[in-house]
Write a structure and sequence with these properties.
This protein is of the alpha+beta class and 171 residues long. It has one domain. The chain is built from 6 helices and 5 strands, in the order αβααααββαββ. The strands form 2 sheets. A 3-stranded antiparallel β-sheet has the order 4-3-5. A two-stranded antiparallel sheet has the order 1-2. The protein binds copper (II) ion.
């Protein structure tokens, strides 16, 4: 019960902090603890999602090498997931990208394919957040998936790390 209250108050704090869409770094290092630990009915899909999150974190850190590695793992794990052909071709673009900018562009496309796979009633527990920043991807706007409501933007590097909003909760 105590834990639930704590989670709720954290959720409220996060909502308050991120309700405004601005580009200031909110220094949100103390706002963790929102991990919802999503679980999947399909084990292969669970592995693929975990690899997607590794890729997302690598992009948050602007780490080209780690993003390359994570995309190779994701391509492999997606090959075990049914109806994931389009997602596989998106992630192969991330893997073959020559720089961070290209990786991020392909990652935006990959996210929309991963969302489709996840939304097909594949979650057995927890929830996943679809997050958005309108400045990402050359101001075209771009989405990413996350285990937390806390925003860690994978598109814009350190300057805009906390820029974005939760658009949808998938469960
Ligand atoms: Cu933004």
């Amino acid at each position: 019960m105590k834990k639930t209250i704590m989670m709720l108050s954290l959720a409220l704090v996060s909502l308050g902090a991120f309700a405004q869409h601005n580009h200031e770094d909110h220094n949100s290092s103390n706002m963790g603890g929102m991990e919802s630990e999503p679980m999947f009915k399909d084990k292969a899909m669970g592995t693929a999602y975990a690899n997607y999150i590794e890729l997302k974190e690598a992009l948050v850190d602007s780490d080209f090498e780690s993003a390359s590695k994570a995309s190779a793992s994701l391509e492999k794990s997606l090959s075990e997931v049914e109806s994931s052909e389009v997602a596989q071709s998106s992630v192969s673009k991330v893997r073959q990208a020559g720089d961070l900018k290209e990786q991020r562009k392909a990652f935006a496309e990959l996210t929309s394919e991963m969302s489709k796979l996840i939304k097909g009633g594949n979650l057995s527990m927890g929830e996943i957040y679809l997050e958005f920043c309108p400045m990402s991807n050359n101001n075209e706007g771009a989405y990413w998936l996350s285990n937390t409501k806390e925003i860690r933007n994978p598109f814009l590097g350190k300057k805009m790390l906390n820029c974005g909003m939760v658009k949808e909760t998938i469960n």
